[in-house]
Design brief:
Its main location: cytoplasm. This is Ascorbate-specific PTS system EIIA component. The protein is an alpha/beta fold and 149 residues long. The chain has a single domain, classed as Mannitol-specific EII, Chain A. The protein contains 6 helices and 5 strands; from the N terminus they run H-E-H-H-E-E-E-E-H-H-H. Helix 2 runs antiparallel to helix 3. It starts with a helix and ends with a helix.
């Protein structure tokens, strides 16, 4: 479940970035600080986008930075970053990005429930409003815990 991967310590609000690479680095900072990932994982995410394009921009204004579990992941976890100023990733359909959910997994399956929850939440206007107006990380976590399946 999403509530098991995302916690208040992994949420940053009103972050400013210079470009999409900086956004990926900043979305990884909470996980890096807690030892969930290494710098190698963040670089793998950046390298993937350089190679495959901005596939991580999954819907209007939302990116899901991630890479293979083969490099730099110590613990399955997720972070959330709300940008102060949206940033262009090069995805014509869904740019600019304002919200980033970085996902790091140690295997190929344990995160699927959380992804399903996230997908369902992103379809709710109420959830998107919470992401936009949250004053502190607890506002987001409270909503997730209240409405998680």
């Amino acid at each position: 479940m999403l509530s098991e991967l995302l916690n208040e310590l992994n949420i940053r609000l009103n972050v400013e970035c210079k470009n999409w690479e900086d956004c990926i680095r900043k979305s990884g900072e909470p996980l890096l600080e807690r030892g969930d990932i290494t710098e190698a994982y963040i670089q793998a995410v950046i390298d993937n986008v350089k190679t495959a394009g901005p596939y991580i921009v999954i819907t209007k204004g939302v990116a899901l930075p991630h890479a293979t579990n083969k490099v730099g992941v110590n613990r399955t976890s997720m972070s959330f970053v709300r940008l102060g100023t949206p940033v262009y990733f090069g995805n014509k359909s869904n740019d600019p990005v304002k919200y980033l959910f970085m996902l790091a997994t140690t295997d190929t399956g344990s995160h699927l429930g959380a992804l399903q929850d996230l997908t369902e939440f992103l379809e709710r206007k109420e959830f998107m409003a919470v992401l936009e107006t949250a004053k502190e990380p607890a506002d987001i976590i409270s909503y997730i815990k209240l409405y998680a399946s």
